[in-house]
Structures are given as C-alpha cells and as structure tokens.
Design brief:
The complex is a heterodimer of chains A (180) and B (280). With 180 residues, chain A is mainly alpha-helical. Chain A folds into two domains: 82 residues, Rna Polymerase Sigma Factor, Chain: A (Orthogonal Bundle), CATH 1.10.1740; 85 residues, Arc Repressor Mutant, subunit A (Orthogonal Bundle), CATH 1.10.10.10. In chain A, α3 crosses α4, α5 crosses α9 and α8 crosses α10. Chain A is elongated and about 60 Å long. The N and C termini of chain A lie far apart (51 Å). Chain B folds into two domains: 79 residues, no CATH class; 138 residues, bacillus anthracis domain (Immunoglobulin-like). Chain B has two helices and 13 strands, in the order αβαββββββββββββ. In chain B, the strands form three sheets. A five-stranded antiparallel sheet of chain B has the order 10-11-12-1-13, with no helix packed on it. A five-stranded antiparallel sheet of chain B has the order 2-3-4-7-6, with no helix packed on it. With 280 residues, chain B is mostly beta strands. The longest helix of chain B has 19 residues. In chain B, a hairpin with a 2-residue loop joins β2 and β3. Chain B starts with 12 loop residues before the first helix and ends with a strand. The chains are: A mainly alpha (180), B mainly beta (280). The interface between A and B is large, with 55 and 50 residues.
C-alpha cells in the first residue's frame, strides 16, 4: 500500500496521530496477515498491539518513508513468528495452497498428495523455512531476519528441506503405487 | 488473504483499532521511561528506496609462505583451521593468530570441543571437533551455532557452517560469522550448538580481534547499469585481504536486487588477476 509520504515523515518525527492514521489504513491487511499465522482473532489482536508498539519505537530509524508498508509488515511477521515459537506452535498453512505454489515452482513431483505428512516429518526449522518461503512468499533475507539466522543457514534449510520432502514424497508415491 | 477468512465473522475494526492505540500508548510509556522493557533492541531494517547490499570480499593472502608444517607433528586433529583447505585459516594457524580454547562438553555421549577461534577483519571463525560414541546423521547439528555478543542476540547475522567427516564418529566443523558494526574489537562470544535430539552445547569465551590489520579507506563509487557500487575500504592482515563494498539500486522488489551477484575481480599493479577469492 502506498502512503502519503508527508504523513510517514511526520510519524518518523514521532507524531503519534500520524502513525495511528497510517496503521488504520493498513488495519485490514494487518489483521488478516496476523490471522493467517494464528487463525484466532485474540492472537491476531495481540500481535497487532505488539507490532504497533515495536514499530512506533523503531520508526525514527526508518530511512525511506516510501517503504513504510513493507517495513511494517516485516515487523508484524517477525512478531507472529516469535509468538508462535514461544508457544511451540508451527506456522499454520493451507496444504493445497502450499502444494499449488510449490508445484507451480516445480519444486515437487506432481500429484504430491502427501505433502502435509511429509512436511510434518521435517524438523521445525525446515518446516518454518518452507512455509515462510513458499506459502507466505517471504524472501530468504526476510526469513533470515524473522528467524534470527544467517541468510546462508536459511538457504541450507530450504535446500535440505526440499531434498527431504522430495525423497519422502517419492517414497510415499512408490509405496502407494505398490499397494494399489 | 481476506478471502481466506471470509467464513469467519466480519473484520473487527473497533478491536483492531483499540489494539493499535494500545500499542502506541505502550510505546509512548516505554519512551517516557514509565515501563521498563525486558530488553531494549534497536530495530533497523535494510529495506529502503534503494536496496542496499553490503558485501565483504575476502582474498586469501598471496604473499603467504608455503605451509611448512610437518604432518608428523600434528595429532589426529591438531587444529581444525590448520587442517582445513582454507588458505586464510591455514595462514592464521601458521602465524599463531588463533585463540586456542580446547573446552569440551559432553552430552548424550557426544563431545563437542570448542577448539579454536579466529577474529580477523572479515570473520569470526570457530573451529569445533565433534566426537560421538555412536554414528550420527549427516545433519545432526542442523546448520550450525547460534551466537550472542556480550550475552545479547545480534540484530543481523551472516555466515556459514560446514562440517568435515573425519570418521563415522568424528567430525570437525567450521563456523564463520561475518563481521558487522555491532561487534566491538573484543567481547564475550556466546555459542550454542543444538543437536537433533534437543541437546544444547553452550560455550562462552572472550574474543579479541587480531592486531596489525591495516585498513585503507577507499570510498570509490561507480554506477553501472543502474547499480551504484561503492568500495568503502580494503583491509589487509596476515590472514588475507578484505574488500568492503556496498551496492545500491532502485527496485520494487527486494528479491530482484542484483547486489548479491556482484563479482569483484582483484588485480595487482600489473593487471594480473589475484586468485583464491571468496565472498559473503
């Protein structure tokens, strides 16, 4: 979303009203994005409150007002991830949508009907990387920031996760082929 | 995104606005010092109207002497760095620049030894020796260690982790962490290695940047094909030569930045290419 640069500049200078207006403009996107990570209204509202607080404390350091929206959503995603991690919960995703996105990028064998099962066998870091990258469309750099890991580590997670998934899916495909 | 949740109740605008207002009030209280935050962290974000990519190019020193270590003097694993195939680390080992630690911790029959650390102008490099009673999977230790600087998590971490299998129960590992401005010349480095079964090997050691690093400010800037490249400085030490650069370009999507793919060639005064480059 594009914002009035003057309004963002006011917010950068610490104008709480300007900041509030900016967030009100993003309110639906903030809510539905948070909801996509938690599925529960109460959690989404908690994350929005925490994101707003952190963003207001940090906005003085925002160097380029035109990227306010991107900057804000990175904070939101980071908060979502941290809260999920604190609660030892996996990032929720829609299996069919993830499958569609991964197949579209030709990352998986076609008709990978057991993706959810295969994904659940991966360790938590691999699962998180795959879901953030393919389902939530985060860049590797953003995932690294969200997870607090080096970029190289995220690349390794993704590479290994894809390898494990492919092996697992091919194995389950062969198994099903034999049992039919 | 919204369509996904259309089956749920409508958008709770009042509650979302209340959460936003409460969040702002919470921040204002913290700024006024009324509420003490459990930790204060300056949040900075790279994304901006120009996508900035900071790079460090490491050139293994060409003037290094031939490795003269006699194999007979080295135990099975004397030095992870000395036995590595990285010339910069071999030089550091030869020149006695590494901090030998030698602290071992054993959990679940797996002994992890923090063998050595090198803090030079481009990286903090950590050498580990891992020995286990049973055979461990290839990815047992995931993708390396988490670090802290004086007990605090760094904002940005770059680097790499790699293992070399010495035998079915012994492996060495090298973790490299890119230097950034958060890192003082000496500090307490915390390291945590996690195992597949939830084991955590934690180490804490003071580290100090090596001396005799010659830094030459360059500040040379060129723009080619919309990419603004600025070489900020060149640092030279006994472990190698580092070139620091920043690239900036206007992009709508951070993923499309080309800065990560910039390949620098280093030549000497006669135009001869210097080999053995690595970058991050």
């Amino acid at each position: 979303m594009k914002h009035d640069i003057e309004l963002v500049e006011k917010a950068i200078k610490g104008d709480a009203q300007a900041f509030e207006q900016l967030l009100f403009k993003e309110e639906q996107m903030l809510y539905y994005k948070a909801l996509s990570y938690f599925g529960r209204k109460e959690d989404a509202l908690d994350v929005i409150q925490e994101t707003t607080c952190k963003a207001f404390l940090a906005i003085k350091d925002l160097r380029n007002p035109e990227y306010f929206s991107t900057w804000l959503f990175r904070i939101l995603i980071r908060e979502c991830y941290q809260l999920l991690k604190k609660r030892d919960r996996m990032i929720p995703y829609d299996e069919m949508e993830l499958l569609r996105k991964m197949e579209h990028k030709q990352e998986l064998p076609s008709d990978s009907l057991h993706l959810g099962e295969a994904l659940s066998k991966l360790n938590e870091s691999y699962q998180t990387s795959i879901i953030l990258f393919y389902y939530h469309d985060l860049s590797i750099r953003d995932i690294a920031e969200v997870m607090g890991k080096p970029v190289g580590t995220i690349k390794t997670y993704l590479r290994r996760a894809k390898k494990h998934l492919k092996n697992e899916l091919e194995r389950s495909y062969k198994f099903n082929e034999r049992t039919i | 995104m919204k369509e996904q949740f259309d089956h749920l109740d409508g958008f709770p605008q009042d509650e979302v606005r209340l959460a936003i207002r409460t969040g702002i009030a919470q921040a204002q209280e913290q700024m006024d010092g009324k509420v003490k935050t459990p930790y204060k962290r300056k949040i900075t974000y790279l994304l901006s109207s120009v996508a900035a990519v900071f790079g460090l190019l490491f050139i293994s020193a060409q003037y290094s002497p031939a490795i003269a270590t006699s194999l007979s003097k080295i135990p099975l694993i004397g030095s992870v760095f000395g036995d590595s195939d990285l010339i910069g680390l071999q030089n550091a080992y030869q020149e006695g620049l590494i901090d030998e630690i030698g602290e071992t911790q054993t959990i679940n029959g797996i002994s992890v030894t923090l063998n050595e650390v090198l803090y030079d102008q481009s990286n903090i490099t950590i050498g580990l020796i891992i020995e286990s009673e049973r055979e461990l999977g290839e990815h047992y230790f995931g993708s390396g260690m988490d670090i802290t600087i004086n007990g605090k998590l760094p904002k940005v971490v770059t680097g790499s982790y790699g293992e070399e299998m010495i035998s079915s129960t012994t492996r060495t590992a090298i973790q490299m962490i890119g230097i950034n401005e958060e890192m003082p010349d000496q500090f307490e480095l915390g390291l945590t290695l996690k195992g597949e079964k939830g084991e955590k090997w934690h180490f804490s050691t003071p580290i100090k940047k090596i001396k005799d690093i010659k830094t030459i400010p360059v500040q040379h800037e060129q723009t080619v094909d919309g990419i603004q490249l600025k070489v900020t400085e060149v640092s030279i030490s006994k472990t190698g030569v580092s070139v620091s650069f920043e690239s900036a370009e206007k992009v709508d999507d951070f993923d499309k930045t080309r800065g990560n793919y910039i390949d620098l060639q280093v030549v000497d005064q006669d135009g001869n290419k210097i080999k053995n480059l690595s970058g991050q």
